[in-house]
Every structure is written in structure tokens, then in C-alpha cells.
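[job 0412] stage=complex_fold ligand=FE2/S2 (inorganic) cluster status=START
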Amino acid sequence: MQSDVAYAICSMNDIPSRQARGFQLAVVADDGTARPWPIFVLRWGRQVFGYVNRCPHDGVNLDWERNQFLDSNGTRLMCGKHGALFELGTGLCVDGPCKGRSLTPVALTVLDDDICVTGVTLVEDGEPVLDDDA
Ligand code: FES
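[job 0412] stage=complex_fold status=DONE, emitting C-alpha cells
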């Protein structure tokens, strides 16, 4: 179900530049049911990039250590299971078992220093939960 609503999930200051954070969200599907929607947000200066936290190789979350989404150089996103590497800005896998495939992008916008997701209908029972607060 598409929506024009922007849902604030955290403040810009909650994510240091050149780091990423995972969020356990839930969306309302077309049939009206809720389904889990784990995503992560990478901040790079004033830019933010969002992806669904699901590796195109095996369908698992990328951060095998919580909120560790980057490789040791901090220049690629990395899946902790088999080490697939993804471009920061496009989510394209450039090395590893799913080379040539891509992470699913999440539409984000920044409003008054709040990072917001758009284009989906979120289930809003309480505040979104930062993975490291869970
Ligand atoms: S599950 Fe991500 S690289 Fe294999």
C-alpha cells in the first residue's frame, strides 16, 4: 500500500556520519495485515541511504553483529554471513556470492533533521525501535 506520509524514525544526530543503524519496523501490506519490515539507514554527512535489511544472497539480515553494516574500511556495505560487499549509494553487490544483485532501497527524506521513511504505510503502535535499544 503506497502512502504519501513521512514517518520519522530517528533524528539525524542518532546516526553518526559514516555509520548505519538498523530499525525493526512493520508495514501494513495490501491485504491490511502487518508484516515485519527490517531496514537500515546509512548516514554519510548530510546524505542518508535506506535499504531493507535482507541480503539478496540468502535473505538474512546483513548485520551479524548488531548495527555492523560496513566493511572494515567503511567504504562498502557488507553482509556478515558470507561477506558480500555492496556500494553505499546504490546497494549494488560488487563482490561476493550475490554479485550483480542489489539490496532493496528504502525511500527516505529528511524533515527538520528527522530521518523519515516514505512510500509505505507503517504500523504505528508505539515508537520505532532502534536496534541497539531493543
Ligand atoms: S547471506 Fe549475505 S552474503 Fe550470503
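The chain is about 0% helix and 40% strand.
[job 0412] exit 0
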